[in-house]
Records
---
Amino acid sequence: MPTPIWTPTEARVKASVLTDFLRWMAAEKGVDLADSLALHAWSVAERGAFWAALWDYFGVIGDKGHGGVGGDSGPWIVGEGMLEEHFFPGARLNFAQNLLELAGAEDSATALVFRGEDKAEMRWTWGELRAQVSRISQALAAAGVGLGDRVAGLLPNRPESIAAMLATASLGATWSSASPDFGTRAVLDRFAQIEPKVLITTDGYWYNGKRIAVGPKLAEVLPGLPTVQKTVLIDYLGTANSVAAELEGAVSLADFTENFPAGEIAYAPVDFDHPLYILFSSGTTGAPKCIVHRTGGVLLQHLKELALHGDVKPGDRLFYFTTLGWMMWNWLASGLARGATVMLYDGSPFAPGARVLWDYAEAERFTHFGTSAKYIDTLRKSGYRPGDVLALSELRTMFSTGSPLLTHGFDYVYDAVKADLHLASISGGTDIVSCFVGGDPTRPVYSGEIQGPGFGLDVDVWSAPNTPAGPGEKGELVCANAFPVMPLGFWGDDDGSRYHAAYFELFDGVWCQGDYAERTETGGFIIHGRSDATLNPGGVRIGTAEIYAEVEKFPEVRDSVVIGHETAGDQRVVLFVAMAEGNTLDDDLIGRIKAAIRKGSSPRHVPARILAVPDIPHTKSGKISELAVKDVVHGRAVKNRGALHNPEALDAFPVL
């Protein structure tokens, strides 16, 4: 058994929300559960009772629906099989009402804090947030937005963006968003499919110190969105009115809401399964899938993850570095339901320097800091050590997702950020706008591992249908039971065939996430990369994460991507590296990289070729785009370059 890199103190375990939930379960439900492991086992065996208990514990605002105390086959779940089961029949609730009212936050308390690089700062109280939601909600209703209509947001991560989402949800309409750095084609590939009635956007944004106007892009986008009846511009650069004047049917947010004084918000109750969000797959292998998410499922799942897995409490200060093009923005916004102050940031996390997010964390006394594994590795390579120079005494938890967090990432966080910290590596996806596996504030953290499965989710690793893999054996990450935050399906997929093919085809009737993973002897999980990006040299399946784990140890290498190159009826491993400034790829470095991979992984992991390129392509959410590189190397067209943050990086990759 490995040695933990961090173990919570007894006092911290006792003070956790998870422990409070266990006490509450014993007192209120008569269910005695010794610890989080017992809770997970019970939550899978008695799913109906578990999800109903969450509703009661958090005090969800709404009508819970039919029945009383129900077990797995009780009244809280109807139907049979993953694709047919539904939770909370007859329930009625409103998502915005729960985010704005559930925690009972006083109007004078701080709800949102915003920084935009070094260009802007804002701070909204709960009263100001509720007032903005009231005004935008009334204006949207006057513009004809109602139950089931779509509102699209092409927006930076500002307070007005949160308010616009909540206003949309208050009406029972469906919200969908993207980041304003998306290209015209990428925007149309997403929003044109869902036919929004209103587009809420911005006049521009700042990134890496540059002022970027959005007006020219809007002039290209709007003709491709014929269903948009009103375009609303949030003023970031001070040009919203002038940009609106150039666009038909456009108006600034100030003008859009000027005739609607703040008042009580009219929350429209909707069914538990009513469409709340439409999120999009990355779109790097074709047109993005439009994934439709359920109102009640998102609320319960986010409450569970934030509170039980993340230990977010009322008054905490919750930060996640994200854009509106990544599901972590939706997850972050749900922190309001816990009564947390949600900390927003827009722009480059390294402008004007590596300190920018950490100066923000110190000044605003973050309790939770969320980011990507890529950011942690980039920070590590920069040499910056925030814990050495800043006071981070209130920081309790750090989240990491987007790609596997490798052992040197864990080591860096505990050495350079804070020794007494719950580092929660989490993994899920846009598919469920949440996580399958994640943190547990009451159990030890082991370097390189995700601590365990989500409560209520029968998560496992299978090597074949109905064949769980043993500890240390790699296979497909699956969830073998239905859960409330499963998507309703894909927009426009009327017969459900695309939805079924995406998740239920490999193992008939069981959710297959498409992650190549293993369970560990500690009960945790390791994600080795996406299944569709795994390597298969000599017919032996290996994960890309194992190679990245070794390459990222080299300070000479800024970034890298590894792919399988099909040749002569077999596959060979090819590694591309982008060098750190002042370094070159020579025979000595190639030899040292190969030796490290051979020693740290296996001879089969050693690349047949290592080639230098100027940059590595990433998706908008920061993930390495292995599939796009694989297409280029094999001489195939990349189906959706607009889904990439830096598509120009592909131009330097050779056809092999």
---
Amino acid sequence: MASSYDLSLVILSIIISVLASFTALRLAQRVGESHSAAQYAWLTAAAVAMGGGIWAMHFVAMLAFSLAVPITYSLDLTLLSLMLAIAFTAAGILLAFHFGTGGKVLCLAGILMGSGIATMHYTGMAAMQMRASIHYDLPLVGLSVIIAIVASMAALWLTFRFQTVPGNIVAALIMGAAVCGMHYCGMYAASFTQCQPMPEDHSVDLPLQWLAIGVAVITIIVLCLGLVLSIVDQRLSARVTAEANRLRGSEARFRSLVQNAADAVTLTDRQGMITYESPSTESVLGYAPGHLIGQTIHHLVDPPDRASFYALLHAVTEHPGVARSIDVQLRQGNGHTGQFEIIATNLLDDENVGGIVLNIRDISARLQNIKLEDLVIQRTKELSAANQQLLAEIAERNAAEQALQQAHDQLERKVLERTAELESIKNAAIQASRAKSQFLANMSHELRTPLNAIIGFADALSQGIRGPLADRQAEYINDIMWAGRHLLHLINDILDLSKIESGKIQLDYRDCSLDSFASEIAMTIRPVVEQNGNRFTVDCAANIGSAVIDQVKARQALLNLLGNAAKFTKNGNVELSVQRTTDHHGDRIQFIVRDTGIGIAPEDLSHLFENFYQANPGITREFGGTGLGLALSQKLCHAMGGDIYVESKLGIGSTFIIDLPAAP
């Protein structure tokens, strides 16, 4: 059958196709520029615009086509073709939006959209009701489908790669050409053969005039609304984005100003609890970032200033928007207090702030400068007055200088004379000390000779060499021996003391087993200790080792201490302990003597090691002694590089510690 086209309707169909493609692609572009649920709304609008536009172009083009027989259309298949166009177009755009326009995704999206266009076309062809049958040239049908697919790929690639108006126009021209090319290629592939009678169809027939009007109206409304909506939304989005950028820039600017301000800025609630602190708080107040959050500002205010600060906070709370200031002392992070100015502004009603803003400014330097200025003024006045007085006194001082020079010369002569006298006295004192030491040494030697004879003869008499003695005679002889030995011991102490003071003492260091040394001391002193009913114990580890010491001097000092402990303790405990210790001076040996005797009063401890010092005359009369034992023991320890320490409580007992180096 012969067919023909209305050229004006063909041109109109091409325009509709291009316009629909441009509108749909602009709407699809809004999908990528929107967020969340709005994306699917724009996707639906793009699919409706594309599918509806393709469908409108198809039927306008079909209205441009005429045969020798009347043509009507099935409503069911017509609506089905519309739904297919919308569904396939939506699927293609959604796929390209979610997965990009890579090679595989672009091919699949183009196939979906091209297949949708072809399916819509041939479904619309099937909706034609006429007294003719349709036959298709399959190669041309395939070509029409390929045209639709390739053009759809190109349109999608241009849409998502070049999101500008020129890019959209090029993509719309390609897409419109694809739709029109596919349609007219498909129509060229169809041939019509008249048949009698017309096939029966129970679907509703649509008059061509009303169909043309409806398609045109729907197409114009949908495309215009979609295009206007896209343009308006794009401008609104651009305006919103610009406003958001402006607000972000403003926020960043004010945040930078706050963060870099010389003042510390804090935000508190009505009760003064800090909810925000600027970074400058660390440099102004000395607290680590975030340390003040959750604390009340009142705890930073020095107690004398808290009442004034409470009044400020109350006044600010009662007058929103009014700034008030006060100078207070604040506690800083280093524990010190400083003078600060606090400017408080009530912005509790401001929804963007919602608190009381406190600007904290360090004014210590300013106050110091003011004080310095006042001090400079005061000092200037004082200096001026002093200058006048000084000018008046210069004359007097000039006159007095000569007198002072004369007095200085006289004083210098007297000092020289006095220095010579003191040097003479010093030399005399040194000679006297030496003479004393020599005298004591000589006297000791002179006294020891007859004393040894007296002690020897008394010992011989006590042994009955000259015959038996009566009881009274034996008692006298024992008294003579005791007194002689006591006097000999005293003379030996004086002699040793004189040697030490004159620097003539000689030390004989030998390797000594500390365990054997302690046993020897214990054997010597045990009878003396137990004579007063005391219990004597020795604490010395068997593996304590040896030390290089002067055994004679150490024994003498130790026996003095043990003798005192035995003398001043009755029915108690006396203990000798030997320990080895180490300190920063090296290896050391400690001999510790403990007793439970009468103890020493605190006021006597500082004089205990003085020559001839006796704490209590009553104790001396009761127990005896000369006051040389402890002084001599200390000097012996000093000579060996050690010392003696004492701890004592009156009525409880005493502890003496001899501390000596393990090697000289």
---
Amino acid sequence: MTKLNGSMIRNIALLDHEGAGETTLLESMLHVSGATGRMGHIPEHNTVSDFDPDEIEFEKSFYCSTVSFPYKGLHFNCLDVPGSPDTIGEAMTGLHAVECALVCIDAVDAIKVNTRRMWRLASQRHIPRIIAITRLDADNASFAAVLEMIKAEYGNRCIPLYVPDLSSGKITGLLSVLHDTDAIDGGDAIYNQIVEAIIETDDTLMERYLEGESIAELDLLKALKHALLHGGLFPVIPTAAQQEIGTQELLDLLAELTPACDDIERMVYQNEELVSVADIKGFSAYVYRTASDEFVSRISYARILSGSISAHGAFINRRSGKSEKAGHIYRVIGKKMSDIKSAVAGDLIAIPRIFDMHAGDVLTDSDTEISMDTTNFPMPMVSLAIKPKTHRDEQKIGEALHEMENDDRTFHVHTDAQTKDLIISGMSGLHLKRVLKKLERRYKINVEVSEPQVPYMETITRSAHKVEYTHKKQSGGAGQFGRVVINLEPMERGKGYEFVDQIRAGVIDQGFRPAVDKGAQAQMQEGILAGFPVTDVRVTLLDGKTHSVDSKEIAFHTAGSQVFKKAFLECKPVLLEPVVKMEVTTPQDHIGDIMGDINARRGRILATDIKGSAAIVMSEVPLAEIQSYQAQLKAMTSGEGSYTIEFDHYEIMPPALQKKVLAEKRR
């Protein structure tokens, strides 16, 4: 094989809303290019990019697969980016590795929520986009209708370079707008529209055109490539990948128009200043995915930013500070990996058996210290409390979950400080179902699952003054004695806790006073009403008494705990519940249903916004009311709705709900 250089490499991400056919399109591209001997099919579980057991079982993409193949003297690295909203983290890191996106839009279902989300992510990174209209061989498919929707959503910059040949009543091939005008109904008008759209992006061509000069196709393609690179135009091509219609034209279009790996300037930080990757001489790379593999143990997928790397070469992970060694470097075609001796800037590679590696890590040689902007991953939406079924599994589960958390940046694990539950959090119920399946399949760990407890808190609504408690204990020898007097008062929401020492004249020795503080905080952590932590209170130590023999630290710790409990019950205590800010994105047709449902959940609508055909509803909602919201939103919007949440504040629960929670706690 010819030695690669940056001008030969084309890195392309295939993006869609799940079910729009990107995996089938990639299979068609591999077969038509000659990279595979036959085209794989999802129902037959033999596609190149969907090889994980979860993907085979559910017959959909969950992970960002890398597929490399040659075509017309170029080297294509294609990323099959999963189209489910659950897997948005895979897209966020995968898009760092490419210079172009092929956005797949279903000819039947058209633009969906995740199509918009993927388009927005690519736009934020200024990635050129080509649109493939897919599944044009499906019943009820309409190229014209979908093209109009695309233009309505993304503007007239979306230009079709081909149209489907429907002369026999169904799609049998493609017709080129630039070459086959005679065969296209209204072909001359369509040709002129496309030519004028291209010319409008180039002042020199526009001047020549207005002077009556005929513009050569070579000049048009050069201007189109420049406009694609700078976001001025988005070429559109129809496809029916199952029949391999449009695939050859698509491959030729990608070879002709997509930018080389060094055509787009990438900026990184060096010595706290932004610099171009092109100015960095040493080796640097960005890790866009990591995965646990049952055979190779761990695989890290990286985009080389600058320099080159050889097999057995050393590098530093700038996050961990560790020096690592690449025992092997792999070229990747789905699950198939082949050894290569070295790789250059722009290429996508896999490195095995590096155990402390995360998606988003930056790798460099010892002389090249750079960093990149941190990716802000969305907050997980759904949580479960899990408990290993056996003691043996208790010892294994922490390491297993930690490894899975490293590989999936939208999966979080923590032990709840209040309830002591082991909590796993993900983007949806299906996301967590896959985690539990992987625990069982790969790590042989079985767990019991339950809804996590809502992290309520306790507080007070009025003050108590000069509350006294005396702790006495006599057990044969030296006893225990401590008397304390406190004030307890509420503080502003979110202030937490404050201890004020107002002891005068040494009625309690200086050495015993911190024990009163610690005793009060210990009781706060235990809770009083229902075992939830206490917050937003101020304890003022006013007075007390010591005994020359029996007073000791433990006595004042106990007195502090008990006097706090006594005072707390005098202060009209209440339960606090967590309230989150929630942003729901939905098709406009469902905005009324969404707002009504939020109100029914004790939510407050803060604002609404319209973006294209989507509506955005911003609100504040008690966390307890949206524990299963993901599934309910999906039902309300036929799978088109999505949402994000973030913790905002605590507020007092309604009395009727407090009684219900307290009754459940007592039971």
---
Amino acid sequence: MNSKLFTLFAISTIAHAAQDDILRFTNGDQLHGTYQGMGEGNAILWTRLDLTSQISLKSENVRHILLHGAMPATDESTHSYVTLQNGDQIPGVILSFDEKNTRIRSHVVGEINIPSENISAIHPHPFGGKLQYAGPFSSDGWEVYRPEDRDPRALAKKKAETEPSDEEKNEDKSKDKKEEPTWQHSGSAWYHVKGMHVLARKNCLGDSTLMRFRLAWRERLNVNIGLNADFALPPEPKKDEAEEGKKVGGAGRQPAMFFNGMPTNHSLSFGNALVLTVYQSYFSLTRCGYDENGQVINQRMLQTQSGVQLPESGEATIEVRCNRAKGLLMLFVNGQYAAQWEDIESLKPKSDRDEGEAIPPLGNGFAIQCNSAIRLSEVVISEWSGIKDSAYSLSHEKRDIILLNNGTDRYSGEITEIKDDVAFFKNAYCALEIPLTEISEIVFAKKQQADQKEPTEGTVTARFYPTGKISGLAQSSGPLAMKLHHPLAQQLDVKLNHAVSLEFSDENPFLEIMDHQQEIQLTPDK
């Protein structure tokens, strides 16, 4: 496609409907229109209302396509899925399973057979409760802000001390227009480049919550995660206390303090909240907020911690399970138990606390803040059923692991068969028949799991709501379906009306977007 034609697309001001598809190139540019399939040489076929004919785009120049405005058709009857050895997740239910073969019925790929040795896990009830949110397939419901903009007194003081001239005001306005937000949404993820802005989602956490998300980072990880945040603004101190503060050097609201480039006064960022700080080899939980006098609360909580460590650069799935009534918060990293905090009085609702306590109540928001480049994706928020274990954290070299929905019972042994919605299980002590309706997840013995291979050049990945990922080499595609050659499941006919996005350059999109930002920063102003 020539540069003049692309420029025309990029600057087009035509109003696009919410259900339009959005194509993003590897250089960050985007194009609205409608995905029509793939032609010869895996070229992407695309149409727009302002064009008389469809155009053809090279897939190697495209990062991803958001389909249906990131609002696909969904099957709300079940959220079950099957995880394959290569990490793909096929939405659907198990019709049968034995030593050799697994049959799956999926609203995405129909009924298919997969060799059982290629199955890593089965998730009949993956969220343990009602699903509240899955994304971020769009930026809707998210906010980005600077913590300092939340302090009206600090802003007023700064304005009074540095009232700019008219010339400076015009210059500042020009700078503001050029300023890019430090959090940017692209595809099905949020990307943070630099700065200390906060990314927040309000009214999303309940009294008993399971929250799971995936982080990717380039430098040593140091991130603050605000949980049950109410985003309260700093309260005005009482007049006599404010006067006293002036005499002794400012006993009112404490100024923000920093450690390793991250604020230790979290109240300005999150209001009243629990702040989970994730380092490479250490996790901490802090209760922050403001007391009735406007003083900052910054209380570190004691925890029980495992030996889980994170690499200096890489990816990890972070999962938080929280029950406010019990004052319990648990942390898992890549399915492995990492830490927990118990009897957290400040977590409990006011009605469950002892009389005389003056701890400000928490909220129900989520926020994240960091000082380095990261990617936030695969966010899932649901009710927590109370299960205190992860089947992955209990995984064994020779035993299959079953976790039940009741949050208590678990079994290790061998799944010999699944049929008629019943799992047949045995170990050295018993043989059981367990209905799939009672099972949260099954993780098969590690001996079945092979090392993951690097994705083949030309791999296309389809993602689904709320969970699901199927990757392979595209054999052909129309606007509603795609034929994929899958490395483990052979030929698959994927229905695209259920897909959220198609990813074409997914070998390391995190590094791609970060490198693109660096190129922009290194480009001198003309």
